Amino acid sequence: MIAAQQIQERRLDELLRRQLGAKILAAIGDPEITEIIINEDGRVWYESYGKGMHEAGLRIAPSQIESLIGTVAASLGIVANADSPIVEGELSIAGIRFEGLLPPVARKPCCVMRKPAQVLYALDDYIRDGILEKAHAEVLREAIDRRLNIVVAGGTGSGKTTLAGAMINEMVERSDPYERYVIIEDTLEIQCRARNLVQLHTAESADMTRLVRTTMRLRPDRIIIGEVRGAEALALLKAWNTGHPGGVTTIHANSARAALTRLSSLVQEAGVPSQPELIAETINLIVFIVRMARGRRVSEVVRVDGYSAANGFALTAIKPDQGIQAIKA
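User: That's the sequence. What structure does it adopt?
Assistant: C-alpha cells below.
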C-alpha cells in the first residue's frame, strides 16, 4: 500500500515537472525569482529581487495551464473542475505555494506560484539595499532585546514574510541559544537558524487557531505566526500576553494604523468583541513595508502607546533621528 502510494506520488511529481517545462523549472531554481505568474492570456511574468515584475518572454497554452492545475490538484488529493475551480496548496517541488483558478471564477485557466525565500536575509542586508534606515534597524534590535511583540504589516508582495524572517534570525543571533521557537504558517516559508525549533503548518484537520493553542503545550519561548488572517489573532494575542512575549507576526494592511484596525476585525472572527485594549497592551511595535516601482521600503516604524474609547489607538511614529530612545518611553 505504501509502495503504491509512493509510486503514484513519484509519477505525479514527474508529470508536474513535464507540464511546468524547462523554463519554468529554471525560474524555480533561480534564487532571484520569487514569484511565477501565468495569466489568462498565457503570458508568464516573474517577480524578482533585482528587476521587480517583468515579462518572462514565455507563453503557455490554456490547455497546458488547465492540465497543470489538474495535476497539482491530484497531488494535493483534491479535484479541479467547474464545481471546484480554486486549487491552492504547497507543491512538492521547492515548497512552492500554488494558487490556480479555472472557469467560471476566471475567464481562462491561470495560476500563481510563490517561492519560499531562497536567501536568508539579515537586517544589515536591508540597510545595505536601502530598504531599512540604519537607525530603524537599531530600534528593531532594541525591541528584540527587550522581547517586545512586533507586527510586520504591508500589502501583497511587499516582502512582509522575508522581513519577519530577518527579524526572527536577528532574535536567534541575539538571544539565549537554548530558547525554544515555535513557528506556525499556512505553508512553510520562514527560514530559521534556531537550534531549538518546531515549525508547524496548517492542515485540513488543524487550522491556525488550533495550532496556536497546541503551541502552548509545546513549551515555547517565542511564538511566531507567519501571517495572521483570521480568528487565530485572538489566540495569538492571549499567548503573547500570558508569559510568551517577544514574538513576530505579519498582517496584510495598507498602513501601520490600518494593521491595528484589521487585527481588531480578525479578533471578532473568534466570536468576541474587537478587544482593542488587549491589542494595545500586547502589540508593542508595528513595522510597515511597502513595495514601490523602485523596490521595497520600510516606510513606518510605529510604537503602540495604548487605546482609549475617545481617541482610539495611540501611536507614535519613530523617526530615524530618534533611534532606540523612542521605544524606551
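The two ends are 62 Å apart (CA to CA).
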